[in-house]
């Protein structure tokens, strides 16, 4: 079943409308190839095409990806929304962690491999093993086009144990070997073994200025760097670090992103994380229409609005706790003080401390040469004397308790943070909105949101948040924008009092 009505799909195909890029794919029956709606190849007749929600289902139907428009580089979408929750979580895990086995994915979901396979086939008409294989192949194709990584390393990055199975499955499913795909790329860039440059597309319009300024205002200077047309940050995945540098290319509706990493198996996770952080899978048309339907005045809806994401839940929690009762500027000052002091203390422990250092991978040297390091770890905060922070002792105790909790239960759900003294429902909902894959979190008790809804009501404009589903996170952000920014942390504390 298609996610969009056929008449809309047909019009978008004929217009080659970039706003629909990644929302559907076109299988051409006469050639056996499938394309993005923006493909510049000669347009086939309507009777000779079939439509698919995503690249995986098109490949599973026997179509090969087009070498001209490259479906592997299309923006993502919420194509699997509406399926059974466990299946949706399984899709996300399979897409982000290419090296995990089906049994390991099922274990993370808390179900048996047999039951996971049954659910997957029932709801998606494809087995999880087949889905994982096609996901690996599409990612391999993207790397073959956009990097000069040796085929052996491409295989490693895509979850294959060696080049041979990649070569076999690529030939079987696309009709081309990895070497043939690479030869088709005339503009191949030179890439170091530890660096990979790829292009991540989005559906226009994209409010880069809004999301850039949002990150700039909240920048942790030793962890991230935001400039006029780019953003650079070190992400932490367990004991490993990944540095990305994303340059906005608005004329091509994409970002050019260079990843620096030593473990290529983290590349797919890094890409998925960056897409979340910059909200590249956003569907701006649907969101714009939903916000207006919910009652937002059209002149107050920012076209191409994106939700700035946070990848590390620990970082998100620290930002929320440190930001209580102070301005954004003051909060970021304290976060920078926390980051710089604890990392300076780590260095001062001397060479003997390197075995237990929070940044043991060799990329740390390269990152520090750029002045960037990973965000402080839960272990660092839990073991630190936080007397240097200029905030009430109660908040310092909350920060340490939170760090200890994350150290002991790193996989705990955000809702479980409510057991920590000093953390209330507003903080949990805010962090959920910034870190979750779901764009449907509405902060109904937020004072700024409530005040803006009241002011609109005074102008005879009624806002009904339920009509913005499943995009209510953007409604929250839009109401904040009406007040010229996000809510001040002093208001956050008042909100917390409702739940303590």
Outline the structure in words.
45% of the residues lie in helices and 10% in strands. It has 21 helices and 9 strands. It starts with 5 loop residues before the first helix and ends with a helix. Among the domains are: 6-68, DNA Methylphosphotriester Repair Domain (3-Layer(aba) Sandwich); 200-264 and 278-293, TATA-Binding Protein, CATH 3.30.310. The radius of gyration is 23 Å and the shape is globular. Helix 7 packs across helix 8, helix 13 runs antiparallel to helix 17 (393-408) and helix 19 crosses helix 20. The chain has a 5-stranded antiparallel β-sheet, sandwiched between helices. Strands 3-1-2-4 form a 4-stranded mixed β-sheet. A hairpin with a 4-residue loop joins strand 8 and strand 9 (254-260). The protein has 500 residues and is α+β, with helices and mostly antiparallel strands. This is AraC family transcriptional regulator. Its cofactor is Zn(2+). Residues 81-184 form the HTH araC/xylS-type domain.
> Uncertain spans, ≥5 residues at pLDDT below 50?
186-193, 350-363, 485-500
Give the oligomeric state.
Answer: single chain
Q: What is the residue-mean pLDDT, rounded to a whole number?
A: 87
Largest sheet: 5 strands, antiparallel
**Approximately how much helix is present in the residues?**
40-55%
Query: Could you say which structural class the secondary elements and strand pairing correspond to?
Result: alpha+beta
Task: Quickly count the helices.
Answer: 21
Keywords: Activator, DNA damage, DNA repair, Methyltransferase, Transcription, Transcription regulation, Transferase
Cofactor: Zn(2+)
Protein name: AraC family transcriptional regulator
GO molecular function: alkylated DNA binding; DNA-3-methyladenine glycosylase activity; DNA-7-methylguanine glycosylase activity; DNA-binding transcription factor activity; methyltransferase activity; sequence-specific DNA binding; zinc ion binding
């Amino acid at each position: 079943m298609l996610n969009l009505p056929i008449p809309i799909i047909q019009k978008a195909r004929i217009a080659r409308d970039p706003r629909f890029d990644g929302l559907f794919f076109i299988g051409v029956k006469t050639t056996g190839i499938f394309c993005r709606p923006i493909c510049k190849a000669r347009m086939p007749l309507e009777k000779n095409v079939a439509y698919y929600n995503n690249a995986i289902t098109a490949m599973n139907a026997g179509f090969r990806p087009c070498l001209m428009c490259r479906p592997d580089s299309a923006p993502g979408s919420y194509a699997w929304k509406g399926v059974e929750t466990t299946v949706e979580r399984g899709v996300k895990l399979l897409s982000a962690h290419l090296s995990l086995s089906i049994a390991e994915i099922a274990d993370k979901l808390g179900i048996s491999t047999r039951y996971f396979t049954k659910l997957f086939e029932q709801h998606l008409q494809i087995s999880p093993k087949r889905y994982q294989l096609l996901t690996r192949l599409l990612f391999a194709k993207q790397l073959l086009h956009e990097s000069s990584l040796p085929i052996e390393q491409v295989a490693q990055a895509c979850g294959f144990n060696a080049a041979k199975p990649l070569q076999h499955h690529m030939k079987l499913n696309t009709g081309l070997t990895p070497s043939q795909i690479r030869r088709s790329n005339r503009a191949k860039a030179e890439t170091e073994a530890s660096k990979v440059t790829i292009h991540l597309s989005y559906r226009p319009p994209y409010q880069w200025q809004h999301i850039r300024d949002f990150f700039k205002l909240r920048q942790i200077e030793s962890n991230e760097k935001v400039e006029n047309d780019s953003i650079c940050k070190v992400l932490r995945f367990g004991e490993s670090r990944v540095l990305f540098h994303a340059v906005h290319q608005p004329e091509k509706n994409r970002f050019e992103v260079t990843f620096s990493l030593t473990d290529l198996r983290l590349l797919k996770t890094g890409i998925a994380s960056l897409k979340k952080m910059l909200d590249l899978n956003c569907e701006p048309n649907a969101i714009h229409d939903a916000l207006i339907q919910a009652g937002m005045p059209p002149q107050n809806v920012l076209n191409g609005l994106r939700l700035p994401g946070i990848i590390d839940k620990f970082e998100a929690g620290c930002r929320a706790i440190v930001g209580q009762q102070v301005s954004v500027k003051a909060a970021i000052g304290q976060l920078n003080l926390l980051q710089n002091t604890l990392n300076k203390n780590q260095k001062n422990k001397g060479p003997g401390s390197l075995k237990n250092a929070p940044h043991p991978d060799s990329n740390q040297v390269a990152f520090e040469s750029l002045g960037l390091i990973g965000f402080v770890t839960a272990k660092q905060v839990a073991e630190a004397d936080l007397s240097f922070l200029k905030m009430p002792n109660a908040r310092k105790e909350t920060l340490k308790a939170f760090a200890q909790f994350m150290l002991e239960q790193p996989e705990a759900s955000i809702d479980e943070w409510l057991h920590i003294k000093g953390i209330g429902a507003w903080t949990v909902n805010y962090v959920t909105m910034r870190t979750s894959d779901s764009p449907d979190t509405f902060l109904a008790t937020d004072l700024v949101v409530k005040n803006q809804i009241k002011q609109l009501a005074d102008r005879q404009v009624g806002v009904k948040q339920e009509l913005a589903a499943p995009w209510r996170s953007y409604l929250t952000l839009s109401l904040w924008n009406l007040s010229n920014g996000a809510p001040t942390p002093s208001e956050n504390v008042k909100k917390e009092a409702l739940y303590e």
